[in-house]
């Protein structure tokens, strides 16, 4: 009888020790992967506002980017280090100087802009999709300002920008967005992270 008690006590002690180890001696959680992205788009497309909202920054402190800025945008399964480039005429010609080292691209367009601005955005996106340093990277294309009455639909944007023929064979996502729908915006970035992870896995297999 005493032997049974001793065995039960020993098992109990092992169980308590195992629980203690699990609760108190657990190692740090695995580090989230980090990806370096470049964010481009014309002035007024809403790049800065979208990134600031994702970082939970006060919207009253948002100032349009004139040169470039870098934000670490945290998500549950990754951290995106986003280099945002200003979209003014005088700055766009220097965009390509900041492409090196990018692992993905965010292109923001104003879906409610004038025809002239939309044509300019179209040309800039075409240039980015074909640039040697970006053409193999995942693209997230955000049709922003969907909350405005003049906003064009995603289907209209896709057709006008000729994305199907131009981006065939590339990794790209076209999503509608606005500051009023953060769930949809976060879902768009989750899809981008999935593309980044897929590209990582392909690189490992090679």
Automatic annotation (TrEMBL):
<protein>
    <submittedName>
        <fullName>ADP-ribosylation factor-like protein 15 isoform X1</fullName>
    </submittedName>
</protein>
<dbReference type="Pfam" id="PF00025">
    <property type="entry name" value="Arf"/>
</dbReference>
<keyword id="KW-0547">Nucleotide-binding</keyword>
<dbReference type="InterPro" id="IPR027417">
    <property type="entry name" value="P-loop_NTPase"/>
</dbReference>
<dbReference type="InterPro" id="IPR006689">
    <property type="entry name" value="Small_GTPase_ARF/SAR"/>
</dbReference>
<keyword id="KW-0342">GTP-binding</keyword>
<dbReference type="InterPro" id="IPR042292">
    <property type="entry name" value="ARL15"/>
</dbReference>
